[in-house]
Amino acid sequence: MSVSFARSCGAAIVLSLSAQAALADVSAQDVWSDWKSYMTTTGYKVTGTEAKSGNTLTVSDLLLEMPVMDAEASGSIAMPNIQFVENGDGTVNILLPKEMPLQFKMDGPDGAVEGTFIYSHDGSPMLVSGDTDEMTYDYATALMGFSLSGLTVPGEDIPAEAVKFKATLTDVVTKTVMTKTDLRSYEQTLTSASLDYDFGVTDPEGKGEGSFKGALQDLTFNGTTSIPDGTESADMAALLRNGLSASGRFDFAGGNSAISGRERRDSFAMESASQGGSISFDMSDAGLTYDVRQNQTELNISGSDIPFPLALSMAETGFKLMVPVTKSDEEQDFGLAVFLRDFDVPEVLWGMVDPTGALPHDPATIAIDLAGKAKLAFDMFDPASMEAIDNGELAPGELNALSVNALEVSVAGAELTGTGDFTFNNDDLETYDGMPAPSGEANLKLVGANTLLDTLISMGLVSDSDAMGARMMMGLLAVPGDGEDTLTSKIELTEDGQIKANGQRIK
């Protein structure tokens, strides 16, 4: 995420999103003026030649230039012309070129890396209705595409076929409602029958190649964006404080992908398929959140270093991250969750470690959900602050609290679960060797551990002495719980630096 987020969202809105009909009138000049106002507000430099003839306003040689992060990177969108056609019923059709070049440039130590993406569609018009305070857009196209048409790297002669990127959306229907008050708000929806993508790199000297391709089916998107009006700024932190926010969720019904690579004689390939999933995000001055989930994933892996193909499956996988993004003297929420449920490996792998089937071959689960509070001492989107953090000139902030909302690890018949809550004293950096001193407790439950140890001993995978050491550790930290082969443990960290296990001091 960077300062280009708002600008990129703006370009996507302008070029491909739309909204429901409204009961008011707009003119061609109204629509074009609002576009210019929006683009300059979010940092674009807009140039073009306007000409009105009858019911049509034509903007020729339109160029949208955008700095990205800093002067070392930039991008632009060029259109030979764009037409705003008044329909005579208070609505306006926008006619975009069937192909539009999106150019980018990034300076580096050896010179500038430059390239061009081509945005294409079938030429369908975009319908605009409403009034100057609330414009609504409605757009549908049978085909929308993005492709890389050229790439220049300093000191490298890159053939056109060496690097490829292509993404295609089919049967796209988009809607956007643009409301203008103190903030510009955009309510957005999108549906698409499919998304196909194909990315590949080939070494011109024939030493290797790699590719990543796949497809998603039945995509939907719902989102809201709010942008401060009249704030021409490249300072993302300032925009966030003034009200910039964006949230949305992508869902898909199914997907498949294939990754392959080759370097001289070494090769690797992985194919995957899933039964749907979602990607959601939320950004404001309160923080940044990503939440990614996928259902029933199947993986097939092969390669020159893998003795036989592997087939793996996972019922559910997910990742969630929540972090603060703006400097504050007040505590802010953060969180991290990772889960992999019902991870199943093929029997051929079990057979290598457990040929007699002594162990339960049930699918494994690993899941952890963390939440906490912290004080952030810098703006995450401020490059100068980030550099100071990297150089050790600025402390990132304070960790104040951490909660383990859920912990679950189950494998081979044993299961560990637990929760915990801790606070941190940032004035005490001595008790734990430079770490803020924690206080609080964790409650754990372990089921099936002794049975698993006995089985591993009988299989010859664990020695009696190693098992004895593990049992002594469990005896020190845990007590018998309800149920057979069940242990529980209450670990306490006190404010005076003590560590207790089930009421017994161990430090």
From TrEMBL:
Keywords carried by this UniProt record: Signal
Record's signal peptide: 1-21
Superkingdom field: Bacteria
Protein name, as recorded: DUF2125 domain-containing protein
Species: Phaeobacter italicus
